[in-house]
Amino acid sequence: MALQIHLLDYGDIELETSFLVLGLECGRIRRVPVYGFLILGGKYPIVVDTGYRDNAIMESLGMRGLQFHDNLIQNQLARHGVKPGDVRYVVHTHLHIDHAGKDDIFPMNTTVVVNRREMECSVSGLMHPQYPKPDIQHLIERIHTRDAMRFLDLEITGAEEIIPGVWCEPANAHTEGSANVIVETADGLACICGDVIYDFNDQIVSDRWRVNDMEPRVTGNHAGSKRAEKGAIKKLLNTYRYLLPIHTPPAMIENGHVVARLGMSVPGPIVQTVPVPQWRPV
After folding, report:
1. pLDDT (tens digit, 9 = 90+) per residue, 170-217?
2. CATH topology assigned to domain 4-273
């Protein structure tokens, strides 16, 4: 059976637009979704990222959380006939406040998978308060509980398999230890890319601010260099059939271009086609 990815809708957050795209519309507030992902079709269900703990915790970043009863992770999983105890692995792209807030919903015999470099970064204080205390304290408990945590060493290994058809690779962007989660689907490789991309339209598709050909715009929230982030985005666009960030609906990619946007499953029906700019001779 082919693997399929289902989006889990954990609610929305309101934040300044320039946090999403560096220098864009400073002071303007934008509302964006927070997604997780459920991978089905393998031996066990896998969840990628668990959203934010509650609305109040987002205030520590000056943001507004908009999470309601239907957005609770238990209710999102139930839509697919899955309970937290059914999930074999919770895999993290990284451990920021809106990605690892509900790990404690899962029993200790569910293994949380995280790149070791990301765990180190989460306790370093370098991006405090984006790694909130209650989330990281729970992960520390998992470190000291048998089989409750699995560390990856992606900077050394390059890639590590989680189950057949699902593996992790270093993202080399956003945070020091961010990972991409790659899934083999019936229609090609899909990459759950965390926050390496925040917004397809303003970073990649729109020509409104672009000067150089095929040049993506960087986010307003990255721990590394702008060069590294641009390169990581280009690699995604030139490697995978589908890209699934956390804060914008998935995209279909062809020849390095975003050509379509999808709904709540990948592969799944296209909800919007995206015209590709055409070169014209002078």
Report:
1. 999 999 999 999 999 999 999 999 999 999 999 999 988 788 999 999
2. Metallo-beta-lactamase; Chain A (3.60.15)
d(CA 117, CA 187) in angstroms, rounded, equals 32
Q: Work out whether the CA dihedral 53, 59, 62, 67 comes out positive or negative.
A: positive
pLDDT band at 1 (very low <50, low <70, confident <90, very high): low
Domain coordinates in residue numbering, the chain: 4-273
Structure letter (DSSP) for residue 227: H
What does pTM read for this prediction?
A: 0.97
pLDDT, one tens digit per residue, over 241-256 is 999 999 999 999 999 9
Name the burial class of residue 182, with classes exposed (0-12), middle (13-18) and buried (19+) by CB atoms within 10 angstroms of its CB: buried
Residue 159 neighbours by CB under 8 Å, 6+ apart: 167, 168, 169, 182
The amino acid sitting at 193 is C
